[in-house]
Design brief:
381 residues; three-stranded antiparallel beta sheet; 13 strands
């Protein structure tokens, strides 16, 4: 495609720091990972950050921190990437799918509350496409039922809710650094929390359950310190590499510029789409400032062209697009023929939403080509 859905913003700075890591010989979890953790924690206003191999592994660890397992239910959106549901299964618990608000693609306090049962242990809500959740409302529901909130903030680094960064609310939040995210390390994730005990245990679980990190062993100056390692519980190899950490350090320096350009392009999209028949642009709730990790429109019911036809017209014009997100409850791994689930807003989004290109390097000329193609497609008689 001449115009992709996204392109990571990387340059000479990342190359230079990667060369330093290679020359150092220290490629695994190391000082650049620690620096990246510090930068993310400071940016979101959390006391602690623990890097992982992905947001999926971050969420897996987060659920384990709260003892969630067999017999427990965790409420998740169906309209999300499959990892949100998968991590619940990974700890042996049952994902319970909640519907969304079609305007934001996010679950709401109301759609979560109606799914609570005596087995519910936690919520795993998603800041979908970088649009902040109603965290105050969700926190009230959680407090009323003594439940845990683990935020799937995979898409939301840089998003603000009530003028505070996503990641500074709730019990634990988990971020992704996949190439389609605002900041990337190729793959990678991060757990952020204000709870020192949770952060310490998360770090242990990401390192095979070891009581001493590789960095600490490398710095050890006595035999006692060197042989102090114990494996205090069964853990995992979920450590971010120093190569990824180095890229993350540079990416955090770019973050404000990336956010500014994404928001400029998103405003330009929305202004055009508000004047365009048959298009429903994104809705931004009061108190929310998204990072515009993705830009999604919906094709209105009165449109002469369905979403799939629009997608084909975009592809024919060398413009990449994506059909919104998936609905987990309709996937073979989660579909239940004996107990079908009806989520009306999720299923409407599944039919009508489409993700359009948005990335910092995108020019106004490229964006105008997207806008012209959408307008031409939906103007078909």
């Amino acid at each position: 495609m001449k115009i992709p859905v996204t392109i990571p913003l990387c340059g000479d700075e990342e190359k230079q720091l990667l060369a330093r890591v290679v020359d150092s010989g220290w490629l695994t979890h190391g000082s650049f990972v620690e620096q990246f953790e510090h930068l993310v924690a400071r940016y979101v206003g959390a006391a602690y950050a623990v890097a992982t191999t992905s947001c999926t592994t971050a969420m897996h660890i987060a659920l384990l921190l709260y003892g969630i397992g067999p017999g427990d239910e965790v409420i998740v959106p169906s309209y999300t990437w499959i990892a949100t549901a998968n991590v619940v299964r990974m700890v042996g618990a049952t994902p319970v799918f909640a519907d969304i608000d079609l305007a934001t693609f996010n679950v709401t306090p109301e759609t979560i509350a109606e799914k609570i049962t005596s087995r519910t242990k936690a919520f795993l809500p998603v800041h979908q496409l970088g649009m902040p959740l109603d965290l105050e409302g969700i926190a009230k529901v959680a407090a009323a039922h003594d439940l845990i909130v683990v935020e799937d903030a995979a898409c939301a680094l840089g998003s603000l809710y009530q003028q505070k960064p996503v990641g500074s609310f709730g019990n634990v939040a988990c971020f992704s650094f996949h190439p389609r995210k605002v900041v990337t390390t190729g793959e990678g994730g991060m757990i952020v929390t204000d709870d020192e005990r949770l952060a310490r245990r998360a770090r242990t679980l990401t390192h095979h359950g070891a009581s001493v990190s590789d960095v600490a062993k490398h710095k050890a100056s006595t035999m006692t310190a060197l042989f102090a390692e114990e494996f205090v519980e069964v853990g995992f190899n979920y450590r971010m590499t120093n190569l990824q950490g180095a890229v993350g350090v540079v990416q955090m320096d770019r973050l404000e510029d990336i956010l500014a350009r994404r928001r400029e392009l998103a405003v330009r999209y929305s202004q055009a789409f508000e004047e365009m028949p048959h298009v429903i642009p994104p809705f931004v709730p009061e108190g929310a400032l998204p990072n515009w990790q993705s830009y999604a429109i919906r094709v209105a019911k009165d449109s002469p062209v369905e979403r799939n036809r629009l997608a084909q017209d975009l592809l024919d014009a060398d413009i990449a697009c994506r059909p919104g997100l998936i609905a987990c409850h309709t996937q073979p791994a989660y579909r239940s023929p004996d107990m079908p689930i009806k989520l009306t807003q999720t299923e409407e989004a599944l039919k009508t939403a489409i993700l359009l290109p948005l990335y910092p390097q995108m020019t106004f000329e490229e964006q105008d080509h997207v806008l012209h193609t959408v307008a031409s497609s939906l103007a078909r008689a």
